């Protein structure tokens, strides 16, 4: 938690709730932390986590590249004049029209994980640099990708051989261990699994340029059991990379871990209602208009929540928190510890909400996206 989110600072804000506040300082410091522990790597922020203009501007200014997954995300980068050599088209399955948009802008690095996708890229973006996404063990991660994305290890060599036959550059290999990973050795184990593949490629004269170890770096939420640090992940990855037949350039695509701790959401209590099992606090923000990842069906992520005003001497009690919509799924928490005398009009703060919540805002019951401020 950065100092800018102190109670004193938040008490002084007179914005109408609900609203998000992002700290540019926190974003810059997090980027520097990634560069500290992965000093010889290239960092491409995964825009899917949050694509607010202020986030993109801040990371662009400190030197980050960007991993984009659609022409709509590309449009945001073009508006900021991000050069194509700082952009990866990182999703492995893409519409042809989107490939063309990226290619026309000058982006020449594309992910893929199948023969049809490779043929598609070759027909629209000739001579592009391609990297194959491989499925790795993502057990223990809250959000798993191995079912939907990534080829098996046995296909890597045939796919890159075919890429060369199509006139494409066999740029590299990528993987993703799943979002909010709980195993600190997940990245190391994935690198280890590629030893024989890199050896075989090298024997065929297909030396790759990059090894993209993706994202998945976890954040400390109220629901996080054990903290995994970038330092320990980096140390194990570096040790494993040294065992490879040669050392490709390392690429990272942090999303959640880059932006989560940079923001808070400030909400107001609009009703306090006593039910049989819980005392409910209804808020002006919920899972549909600001706290999507708190929805139980989205990985059971629970946020630290605090009251803006002091608790005085009333002590604390357990509350259930609900959003303002008429939907039964709009429940944020059933175990929030807050001042016992919390009342209508009091403000609550949800911490570490910078990832995924804003990009997932809907218009259920017509509630709009909260305002977003940068400090």
From TrEMBL:
- Residues passing through the membrane, by range: none
Tell me the superkingdom of the source.
Bacteria
A biological process from GO: putrescine biosynthetic process from arginine, via ornithine
GO MF assignments: ornithine decarboxylase activity
Annotated Pfam families: Orn_Arg_deC_N
Record has Cell membrane as a keyword: no
Name-wise, this protein is Orn/DAP/Arg decarboxylase 2 N-terminal domain-containing protein
UniProt organism field? Candidatus Kaiserbacteria bacterium RIFCSPHIGHO2_01_FULL_53_29
């Amino acid at each position: 938690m950065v100092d800018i989110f102190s109670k004193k600072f938040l008490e002084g804000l007179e914005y109408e709730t609900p609203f998000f506040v992002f700290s540019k300082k926190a974003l810059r410091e997090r980027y520097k932390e990634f560069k500290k522990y992965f000093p010889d790597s290239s960092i491409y922020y995964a825009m899917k986590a949050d694509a607010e203009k202020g986030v993109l501007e801040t990371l662009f200014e400190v030197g980050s590249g960007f991993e984009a997954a659609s022409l709509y995300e590309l449009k945001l980068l073009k508006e900021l004049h991000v050069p194509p050599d700082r952009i990866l088209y990182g999703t492995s399955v893409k519409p042809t029209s989107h490939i063309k948009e990226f290619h026309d802008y000058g982006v020449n690095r594309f992910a893929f994980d199948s023969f049809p996708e490779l043929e598609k890229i070759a027909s629209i973006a000739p001579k592009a640099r391609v990297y194959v996404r491989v499925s790795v063990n993502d057990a223990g991660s809250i959000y798993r990708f191995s079912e939907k994305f990534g080829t098996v290890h046995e296909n890597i060599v045939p796919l890159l051989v075919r890429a060369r036959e199509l006139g494409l550059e066999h740029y590299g290999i990528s993987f993703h261990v799943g979002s909010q990973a709980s195993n600190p050795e997940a990245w190391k184990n994935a690198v280890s699994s590629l030893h024989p593949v890199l050896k075989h490629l090298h024997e065929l004269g297909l030396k790759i340029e990059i090894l993209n170890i993706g994202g998945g770096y976890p954040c400390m939420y109220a629901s996080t059991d054990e903290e995994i640090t970038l330092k320990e992940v980096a140390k194990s990855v570096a040790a494993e990379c040294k065992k490879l037949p040669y050392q490709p350039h390392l690429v990272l695509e942090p999303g959640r871990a880059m932006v989560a701790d940079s923001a808070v959401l400030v909400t107001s209590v609009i009703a306090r209602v006593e039910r049989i099992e819980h005392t409910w606090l209804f808020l002006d923000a919920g899972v549909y208009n600001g706290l999507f990842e708190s929805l139980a069906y989205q990985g059971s992520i629970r946020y630290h929540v605090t009251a803006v005003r002091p608790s005085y001497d009333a002590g604390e009690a357990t509350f259930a928190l609900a959003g303002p919509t008429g939907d039964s799924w709009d429940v944020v928490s059933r175990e929030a510890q807050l001042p016992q005398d919390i009342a209508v009009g009091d403000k609550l703060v949800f911490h570490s909400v910078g990832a995924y919540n804003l990009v997932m805002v809907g218009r259920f019951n017509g509630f709009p996206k909260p305002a977003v401020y940068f400090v």
